[in-house]
Amino acid sequence: MLRPDELGPDDMKRWRELGAGAEVPQNPFLDPGFTRAVGRFRAGTRVAVLQEDGTPVGYFPFERGTFGRGRAVGLGVSDSQGAVLSPQVRLDARRLLRACSLSSWEFDNLAEGQHAFAPYAAEELAVPVVDLDGGFGHYLEKLRGSAPGFVRQTLAKERRLVRQVGEVRFVYDSHDPAVLRELMRWKSAQYRRTGRRDRFAQEWISGLVHLLARGDDPECRGLLSVLYAGDRPVAAHFGLRSPTVLSWWFPAYDRAYGKFSPGLVLHLRMLEAAAADGVRLVDLGSGPARYKTTLKTRDLWVYEGAVVCPGPGGAAFRLGREPVRAARRFVRGRPALAATAARTLAEAGRLRNRVTSARTGGGRTDRDG
């Protein structure tokens, strides 16, 4: 059992070798670099190293809380979770948890191919992805065939943006901290406006994003892409990438320019630049969004659930978490109810913004999306 900062060069290399031989693409969230970054902010982060005859054959990263309650590393912001194992390794999940002194292990984006944990999944979620193996030109040709109106309208809005605001400029790999702060401000306002919890109000998430943005590890690093109009940033995205996979993470745009759909313009520019940079798969993340349905070439699958061991710790987990998880699954599985819940959250967000505006003397501060 190691803390992430105790992983030496040999472990980092071996972990990545095992990841390269996995059944699914090398998602950066399953890279040791992500676990080490989370470990800087989450004190309970640990890595179980599985060995056979002294040779590492697997790595299981997790976060440990009170009463032995475990969770996937970066739960809530990580888009791919699980153990990285040699193909020959077969695990008993509960036995592994007991060896790690865990009474439970919760996941919300368990990757495909995680055979030890899959039996404990309570829900299967579709993850839209964009395949870029054939290059951007091939992808765009297929997109024009499946969604000609989408491509035509997005390009027309980009031209209007040029005419009415200024020359459009795209930066694929920006290192401007001011733009990253602006993106986080936009995204925070979007969370508040839609009644959702502001992730960037959590110091560990904000710190994690800033840390990954400064990183230069080609196996796992943050990628900030920005769309400018008239030298003003109007849309941006911060994601995480491996050599071949880009994970869509935090996209946002300035709502003052919403009529030009700058976020969609950014998407197309990013896909083109990513393909030229060697990215072969863009993971758009689970969760409903019309643009994801339009852009995707197919779906992968992730799983939500928890491995729970018999005993007091497992019972405490079930009492504390299962009712909430069951309620969320119930709503998510009923489109009409989910739409009502989304409208209720949005109205709560609007009321909260009005109260905040009144307390600060009025004036619109939420210009983002």
Automatic annotation (TrEMBL):
Pfam families: Acetyltransf_6
Record-annotated BioF2-like acetyltransferase domain positions: 151-292
InterPro entries noted in UniProt: Acyl_CoA_acyltransferase, BioF2-like_GNAT_dom
Protein name: BioF2-like acetyltransferase domain-containing protein
Record organism: Streptomyces ziwulingensis
